[in-house]
Amino acid sequence: MQPARRLIHRTLDRLPAPLAEFILFGLKMAWSCLFGAAMLGLLIVTHLFWPDKAPLLRYDFLFVAAVILQILMLVLRLETFEEARVIFLYHVVGTVMEIFKTHMGSWTYPDEAVIRIAGVPLFTGFMYACVGSFIARASRVMDLRYTHYPPLWATYLLAALIYLNFFTHHYIWDFRYLLFAAIGGLWWRSWIVFRVDQTDRRMPFTLANALTAFFLWVAENIGTATRTWVYPDQDVWHMVSLHKMGAWALLLVLSFVMVSLVIPPRAPQEVEDRKSAEP
Question: What is the pTM of this model?
Answer without folding.
Answer: 0.87
